[in-house]
Structure formats: structure tokens, C-alpha cells
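Researcher: We're teaching a course module on how sequence relates to structure. For the next exercise, students receive a sequence and then see the predicted structure as C-alpha cells, so they can try to spot secondary structure elements on their own. Here is the exercise chain.
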Amino acid sequence: MKRSIPIIVISLALALMLSTQAMAQQTQRIKDLASVAGVRENQLVGYGLVVGLDGSGDRAPFTNQTFRNMMGQFGITIPEGTDPRLRNVAAVSVHASLPAFSRPGQSIDVTVSSLGNADSLRGGSLLMTPLNGPDGNTYAVAQGNLLVGGFGVEGADGSSVTVNVPSAGRIPNGAIVEREVETGFNNSDYLTFHLNRADFTTATRMAEAINDLLGPDSAYALDGGSVRVTAPRDANQRVSYLSVLENIQVAAGDARAQVIVNARTGTIVVGKHVTISEVAVTHGNLTVTIDNTLQVSQPEPFTDGETVVVPDADIDVEEDDNRMFLVGDTVTLEDLVNAVNGIGAAPGDLMAILEAMQQAGALNAELIVI
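Model: And here is the predicted structure for the students to work with:
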């Protein structure tokens, strides 16, 4: 009877939470705002051979060495100094992500990429390749036929056409897990949520939302990026408990006022709380046009002169008549957009205007150039 009480409490809490979700506005689930400490993917990598290629393999020295080592494991010795002249084999790197709670016998997807100068991996098969973690242990073994989305065609005259990237491919469910990674999920009396974007307001609201649902002192914010919650030790109860927690709705704190400028693409993103103090702006374009023409200079008749070509340059300078534009105090994003459109600035010009506004102290936001 005592063991059923926590389940009943969790069920009631879940029902209460679901009934209040309809009234929540501008909120997000905890599972969308944060991750659970220790519950994470692990990166795996390996080195192997892809065989069965239609003459599109590589001739790298390490490919021949790997092929010799593999054949030696099968009792076949290739004489030293003999070039196997492989064109249907390619050395590849194999990498995968091992999801949390993966168990031996489960399958995961792998990505295969050429390490040498192979033209294409299309139609190839990956031979058994161990996938190791950072600690050097083997956590999965990959093998299978590749799916390659790209292809390349080359003509006899040297012309070629390539679509996508034929030197990389994937093997769905191409690796079998051989070892599990301990997560420490059931090793303490607490669960810790790490926020995807550290924010003191969000951390405080998350702790308050959990305490409102489960009772006082159930959760507390460690800092702006982590919230710790008490949790039962029993594995089944802890899973149900976490299922309730990750579906709690929390109103995330607003981000800082920022203007993000991508100088390479001309993309400008303005945050919600960005405002501009009253400032006068003018932005004129100076256009210089140089038109070069070639004139032929002929010598006078019956003289020793030579015919020469003389360049003639016609230079024209034109400046736009852009008058100074007054931008008043803005309080909303719409006001800012209307003010910028009133200046008539293109994205490239707008970058210079925003930078000048920040230097003048009129841009009430952080300007970030990426």
C-alpha cells in the first residue's frame, strides 16, 4: 500500500498539470527548455574499408596498408612490394551518435565518409568496423550497404557533372550496440535540469512552477543555468516522476535586447526589446563612374610619325541627395522597422547605420556581428 502512494500522487499531479495547460499562454514545456543532467548522446568514431565500388575507390597508401592488414587476418599474405592496384576499395571514417539509455543489441545509424581521393562511395559496402568512444572502448560495430545521395559523371574529354556529395553516405541501423554507457540516472536523490539557454528569470520560474505543482522545497535553482529537483530512488517511480516534470509549462524569460548582423549574407535579425533613442541619420551614396574608350591617333601625311592608340577616360561623379532623417524614440519593434524603412536603407547600408547608432549611444541593444 505504501508503494502505491507515490504513483497516485504522480497521477493526480499529472491530471492537475494537464488541466492547467489550456490556460497557459506564451509558455514552453520544461523538456523544450532544458535537458536532464547525465542524459545525453555519446559520439563514436571508427576507421574501416568500403568495398564493391565500381572503379571509384582511392589509391591512398593507407588504404593499401589497411587492405594488407585485413587480408593477413584471413591468412592471406600479399608479397612486399606488390601493388594490389585497388580501385574498388576506399578507406573511410565511420561516425555515429550513441543515444542515452542504448542497450546492447539495439541498432543505430552511422555516417560513412571517404578519407582518400575516392570519386564515389555509391554501391559500396562497409566491412565490419568497430566504433570507439573517447575512452578507447568499443561501444558499437558497424557494417552494411551504403546509401549515397550524390553521384558524379565524367566524360572522355574531361568534362564532369557532380550532384550533391558522392563521397559520403549513411547506413540506416548500420551499427549494433555492444556496450552501454552508464548515465547515473538512478544514482542520487536529485534530478538536475540544465537550461538550453542560461537565464536567471527562466531558472527561477522553472523552480517556482515545479514547487507549485509538487509542493514547497521540491526544486530550487542552483544558478542561472541549472535547477535541482528531489526525486525518488525507485527506477519506475523516477521515470514517471520525470514524465510529469518535463511536461510542466514554464514562461521562459525574454532574451536580452540584441541585434544580430551576418556580414557575409547580409542577414539582420532584431530582437523583441530593441529600441532606438532619438537620433538624426543621413546616409548618402557616392557613385563614381569611369568610362574608358580607346582613340586612334594618326600621324600627319608624309611624316615619320606612327599610329598609336590613346586611352580616353570619361569620369562622372554622382552623389545621392539623401537628406538627414530624424528617428524618434521607439518603444516597439514595429516602430523600429518603420523608422528604418523610412530611411530607405538596404541591408548593407543598414549594417553601417546600426553600427554608427551604437557608437552614438542611440541603439539600446547589443550589436553582434557574426
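Model: If you want an answer key for the exercise: Residues 51 and 126 are 7 Å apart (CA to CA). The helical segments are 4-21, 30-33, 61-73, 200-214, 235-245, 333-343, 347-359.
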